[in-house]
Amino acid sequence: MDWKHASQGFDEAFDSKGDIRPIYEELIGTFRGLSEQELVRREKLQEMSLVNQGITFTVYGEEEGVERIFPFDFVPRIISSEDWNLVERGIVQRVTAINHFLVDLYSEQHCLREGIVPHELILGSDEFRRELIGTRPRHGIYTHVVGTDLLRDDHGGFLVLEDNCRNPSGVSYVLENRNLLFRVFPELFNRYAVRQVERYPQMLLEALRYSAPRGRENPVVAVLTPGIYNSAYFEHSFLAREMGVPLVEGRDLIVEDDQVFMRTTRGKQRVDVIYRRIDDVYLDPVVFEMNSMLGVPGLIHAYRRGNVAIANAPGAGIADNKSIYPYVPDLIRLYLDEDIILPQVHTWLGRREDDRKYISEHLPELVVKLCGGAGGYGMLVGPTASAAEIKAFRAQFDARPQDYIAQPLIEFSHHPTYTGGNFAPRRVDLRPFALFGDGVKVLPGGLTRVAMEEGSYVVNSSQGGGSKDTWILAEQES
Amino acid sequence: MLLEIEHHLKFSYEQFIRESHLEVRVEPRSQSGQILHDFRLTLGPNARITRFEDWMGNAVHWFSITDYHNRIELLVQSIVDTLTDQVKPLECMDPIPSEPAPLPLYDFTLCSGPIIHSDALLQLQSELGLSNAPSIGECVRMLGDGLASKFEYQKNVTRFDSTTDDFLKQRGGVCQDFAHLSLGLLRTTGIPCRYVSGYLHVDTQDIEPSQSHAWIELWSPANGWMSFDPTHNRQPDEQYVIVGYGRSYNDVPPNQGIYSGAAAERLDAKVITRPATSREHPQLDEDSMHIDLPVYREPPEREGAAELTAGEAAASQQQQQ
Amino acid sequence: MIGMLARAAENIYWLGRYLERAESAARMVQCMDQLSLEIRGLDPDLALNIWKHLQEMYPGSLVPTPESTDPDAVTEAYIHAFLMSFDNQLSVAYSIRSARENARVIRENLTRETFVLLNECHLRLQGYMNEPDMNVMRMRSILSSTRQEIFGIQGAIQQTFTRDEGLLFLDMGSVTERAYRTLLLLGVKLPFMLSATDQVDLPVYYARIRAALKSVASLENYRRNYGADLDPMRVSHFLLFDRRAPHSVHVCMRELKQHLDELEVGSPLTNPARLLGKIAARLEFEEQEILASSELDRVCHELAGDINEVHDAISRLYFTV
After folding, report:
1. What pTM, to 2 d.p., does this model score?
2. Where in chain A is the domain with CATH 3.30.1490.270?
3. B94/B174 same-domain check
4. Residue ranges making up the domain that contains B123
5. Contact between C76 and C30 (Cβ < 8 Å)
6. Hey, are the CB atoms on B50 and A258 less than 8 Å from each other?
7. ipTM score for this prediction
8. Helix (H) or strand (E) segment spanning residue C111
9. Residues of B with CB under 8 A from a CB of A
10. Residue B292 lies in a domain
11. pLDDT digits over C45-87, tens only?
């Protein structure tokens, strides 16, 4: 079995001369001690385990939704404690500033009045919830759970690619991947002090309870899901089970006298905190004008009166609109009076006349994204797109340039990945998860997504990406 | 002018429904030029009503009925003192703004919801020559005269959710359509403007009844907000009672809500206005505080409900999803 | 006390019902198959017609008409329809799929062991659909292995579940289903069993009584109590009234009552408990009358209807809030 290293760009396991980086020596050594047959056997075992446990996501657009497993690559990714310390500090800073920004947007709007963020950008966005101006969530926390997407550039430095402030998903895979790797390759853990991720459900429950309305002892928490046909249903169910709280759908909840109740076998039971995994507009059909009984009529009224906490808070989605991203360094300076710790990618805004021209003239070199898009939809990767694809995209872009941003293509890092009997370099990103309760805490781990095709830049699960276990090493005692 | 307004809203359903959740925006605003002296909302079936003010400062009343029912009735009673605004929009000499709108006005410069930034809208905007108007006052005059000559007041051609494009095609509609189209035309011209929902008191009620009404306000740097009624091509006077402001109807519908149950809904609304003699309504006794309509814990049996057939009984052996 | 989410309780109740249904369908098919084989030489027509009884015991089941009257072809058609067809809503595979849907909905209430076993069972059954060269012998072995898998799932549930409401609802689902299936079986089999013994071919007759007992997993229990003497009245009594046979109606009703009592410690009589009390009283005090009745099969169908009423009462009380 060969171990190929990346011929260009940064390889996390090999240096530029092709020598194994010290942190990976034991790991690669252990793999080399296993026969090819043994690897095939373990790979099979791992796949069976995922299928039988129903660790799946549902693919949209197919009848009744088809359950698929999220491909798992068993070569773990290792991050040193020094690197992690920087990432952790950077994320805490970012999440804190973004939350300040949301508090400000829904109250005084300093950032708009001082022109730090153009008000056109906020008021023209579908994600800004005017209905909630003046409603302050408990402790002023909007973003209880944030997933920040990071890349490592061609020198190995971490860059922030985007923030996910509404319903970041993937944390169940962080825990299940660890579980799976323990079972299938226990020997890999022998020589490494890997920090634990198992405490996440407890951390999440603590953060959620912290947000409960004042004066509620032993607050009742529930996870709100759109139902079993949602692509992330497995995760919703997983988190409810791991936290030991009920998993509810909109129809299980009812609002009476501006209090939220769930329908139980013993009648109506009050709910204090809702960890919602549905979009804002599906929360309350009365306020958000949906013509259906999806959601919970009256929920927003109960929330406005402070009778129930909703995490993440309704309206938080405006913060991860891609057109806000370029202003985050300014927001950090405004609210925290600090310089940004983790650098971000240079971004051109389609709504700025100069930038629009630049984007239009450089489409084949750029990565262009829809501001409100997610999951790799509505996106152009110029350098790998065909002329026809660029032409089609140009038409969309020219029609509504203000809806797009563009960034240079980052040659992000490679990581050895088991593929067809060999270990070959594939591109990886990283999504750590931060929880905002009594302070901001970052789970020492994260979801490493991997592009399974050689040379591909697309890591999204909806587009065939896989994932890896991510090891954050404990600090060495000296 | 001291006015007394009664607004009746009666919802009825073909069959019993399980839950209703309703928001109403029916409380006249208290502000300069208009004072709300007394306001009373009576509801049946009995339910707790919550009041709050939305982001525009409009009063919203909200309630839920969570037992089975087939009727809901609301009686809204207000006593309001109104004044005619001294600012005359048609005489406004401010030029049409050339700078983008500042933060507080920005919301009223975008076409959104039923106001659609379409080719048809832009075409009418240029046909009327609004951009060439030397002043805001002249622009309003051109708009009012233009709409009066090209569009008809017609009931039952448009719906509550019709768009400006629908109105442009039909060439007929009601006050809401006139207001939306005017907002679209002024916004594409660069003048910030907002939707006003309220009541119009009519003296000659034997000919034309009083009604819920909609008109617009537009912003002048010199005068602030000025009101204009595009349906009647005139400046509103003391017979106009303001209830709510919004970007469009969608922000201030008199009633909006949702119910669960497979039954068709019918709404009968009626507005009665008259000059008031007192600033307060007479005291009510306990019994008159609510409209007496029944609710049921379980859906009342319908007469002649059929027994289950054998096939249905067999089907009941599967979980109903 | 915090109640369980009503929708979760409903799904866990149905999980219990569907698992029991799957296991009992597999068992019934095995017994029919064996009986049909046993009597093929003795009464070839009966050996074919006997399969139709399976359809009577499962009202609403869907079996495509076999293409020929070849006993092997008929056998294959029926086994296929009740084991692995997804068109037949009462097949083993369909019930397991339904159970697994329930399990997905309430996965957070299940232990990992239970979900994995059920999921594996479902995936295997689904996999058989595409298996080339499916034949009777293969299906027979699948029937046995699937029954064992279901016992494994039920075992995992009893071993790993928290002793709370969830388990009570699951058990209520399974005993309700069990009682219902026993009664449907008796309703179909009794007329024959109680027909005069001198008019029937004895070996066939006894084979059928044995099959009836076996198909409610009670032959061994019966023998332990009464020895090998297969008296039809005693068999009927055993299946309806015996206090130890796990599938007797009496035992199922007693267990259901225990679960309901546990759920409602200290509270006044609920509707399901009241209806159940009526059935229990009838079984208790009308034992002789029921057995002496010339229409024992009709009585069984009545009792099955009563059990459906208990089911409806449970649904209304606990699942619709």
Report:
1. 0.90
2. 348-408
3. yes
4. 89-251
5. no
6. yes
7. 0.86
8. none
9. 19, 21-23, 48, 50, 52, 54-55, 62, 64, 66, 100, 103, 106-107, 110, 250, 256-258, 260
10. no
11. 888 888 988 988 898 888 888 778 888 999 999 999 999 999 9
